[in-house]
Every structure is written in C-alpha cells, then in structure tokens.
Amino acid sequence: MVRKIGSIAALTLAPLTAAAQGAPVPNPADPKAAVPAAQYRSAFQGYRPYREQGPGNWSETLRNLGPPWRGPGSQAATPKPPAKPAPQPAHGGHK
What is the rounded CA–CA span in Å between residue 45 and residue 42? Predict the structure, then answer.
C-alpha cells in the first residue's frame, strides 16, 4: 500500500519538477552561446573634484556656534548660585 502511494506521488510530482526547471542554460564552454551585452559603468561617475574654500567670516562662524561647550553633561555640571536663606530675627531663638 505504501509503495503504491509513493509511486502515485512520484508520478504526480514529476511533471511539476520538470516545469520548475525553466529554460535550458547555455553551455558556458560553447563559444557561440548567446550572452548579454557587457555594460560599463565608471567608478568615478558623479565624482566632483575637491575645491579649496576660503576661510570665510570667522566672527559669523563663531556667532553661529553658540555658547562654548564644556564637555558631556556641561549643563548639569554648571554650578548654580546658592539660594539665600530666609532672614531670621536676630537672637530670636535665645532666651
């Protein structure tokens, strides 16, 4: 019974495997085999050469940078001025 099912499955699947193979691949050793045309693309396509730039306006550049950077966490490390304690009456706690 198992052999019969196996042979039926093989006969059923054989045409499907043949259809999945597609067109035959030409023999690479055949000098007359058709090949797609070679395409050349330059590695420098779209390359723009370096252009030297002038120094520009330094004062404008420094103004655009903003405040000086003091390192990681510089905002948290900036000390805040101590808060003034609430005024207390002179000698109020002494009797």
Answer: 5
Closest CA to 23 of 12, 14, 34: 34
| pTM exceeding 0.85 | no
pLDDT along the chain (95 residues), means of 10: 76 68 80 89 92 85 74 61 74 63
8 A C-beta contact, residue 34 and residue 26: yes
- The set of residues, in sequence order, having a beta carbon less than 8 Å from that of 77 and lying 6+ positions away, is 70, 71
pLDDT of res. 48: 92
Cα–Cα dist 67/78, whole Å: 13
